[in-house]
Amino acid sequence: MTKIIILTDYRDTFYSTARTQHGLCTMDVARVVRSFDDAGLRPQVMQYADLDLSTDLHGIPVLYTSSEDRGLQYKSWIEDLVLAMEAAGARTIPSFRFLRAHHNKVMMEALRTQLFPKEAARLHTYSFGTYEELEAADLVGPWPKVIKPASGAGSTGVASAVNRGELLRAARGLSWSGSLDEAAREHGRRLLLRRRRHHPRCLHRQKFVVQDLIPGMAGDFKVLRMGSRYYTLYRRNRPGDFRASGSGDFNFHDTAGVDQEALLDYAEYVSDRLATPLASLDIGFDGTDFHLFEFQCLHFGTVTAEKSTHYYARSHGTWQRVPEDCDIEAVFCQAIVDYLRA
After folding, report:
1. Of 10, 31, 128, 340, which has the most beta carbons under 10 Å away?
2. Are both 186 and 229 inside the same structural domain?
3. Out of the domains of life, which is the source (predicted)?
């Protein structure tokens, strides 16, 4: 019987769902345990703080939750532990690099460049660690551009810029990392040492991403892959805005004139390349080509699955629409079991 470790956070939450349990958006861990028991696995649930890294973890599957806490301090600690488990030979699901990319668009874009180089090249994506690096950069590609903070959900902090001046103004505010005390000390040093060789300390060190804005799209698609199941919805842009994420304007049946099978083919290609049992994909279509805007492989929203009345699965080379009232814990566990037994 295969042992599998399930790591929850300090509030005993695990992943997230569209419903709440005891006031928390979490999967029902007891139901997850029962599903794994029924599949012949031996689940062991513990909080991160109870993890003993001195034990033999080699080859043991580990499912773990992430965090979107303000400042990502708790997530940073989770990353330390997951990386240590992976180094000890544990089979972390997904691998550490996808945890690092969760709530971190800079890492996500780095993975995109490696896994989908043509996609990255089409978007002319850049990442910067300081405002000054952007100021010195010679950007290529058409305008307008989109600027995104590394962390944030629902398009928080995302802005468009029609020229370099607008982009620099947006970046200056978005990348601010200093405090009033730090700013005062730095400006004082610059005044005192202006006649000497002084290398100013940057006060704008919040990392961010800049890429081309794909014009002419009224919305995008959210596709969740959970094992062999694909769930889709169409998100319309916010009124008078280019952003669909965070709009809340969902349609589970409208494909905005886009061929459903072509969308599923593209989602399958992307998720196969990611090689994880779970994936959340934000996909756009410009009338000719599909574009992968963002992806996550853990701790993503599950509205697309839970509010859907059906899913799609490939059978004998063709896509089949299967009616379903989604039991998110059962679907999650089945995806993991199939992944472990593949």
Report:
1. 128
2. no
3. Bacteria
pLDDT score at 293: 92
CB 130 within 8 A of CB 175: yes
209-234 residue pLDDT tens: 999 999 888 889 999 999 999 999 99
pLDDT given for residue 198 in this prediction:
62
Is residue 153 domain-shared with residue 259, that is, in the same domain? no
Q: 8: which 2 tokens? A: 């929850």
66 CB burial (10 A radius; 0-12, 13-18, 19+): buried
Unique residue bearing structure tokens 């997850």: 32
- How far apart (Å, rounded) are the C-alpha atoms in residues 72 and 163? 32
CATH of the domain at 35: 3.40.50
Q: What is the average pLDDT value for the chain, to the nearest integer? A: 91
Domain residues for the domain of 48 are 2-93
Same domain, 220 and 332: yes
Q: Would you say the C-alpha torsion 249, 255, 261, 265 has a positive or negative sign?
A: negative
Q: Which residues pair with 105 in a beta bridge?
A: none
d(CA 219, CA 96) in angstroms, rounded, equals 31
What does the pLDDT read at residue 47? 98
Look at residue 98 and tell me if it is in a domain.
Answer: no
89 with 37, same domain: the answer is yes
337 with 224, same domain: the answer is yes
pLDDT of residue 32: 98
Q: How confident is the model at residue 184 (pLDDT cuts 50, 70, 90)?
A: low
Give the domain CATH number at 151.
Answer: 3.30.1490.20
CA distance linking residue 256 with residue 222, whole number of Å: 13
Q: How many residues does the chain have?
A: 342
- What is the number of structural domains in the chain? 3
94: how many CB neighbours lie within 10 A of its CB?
22
Q: Are residues 192 and 222 in the same domain?
A: no
Mean pLDDT of 170-190: 77
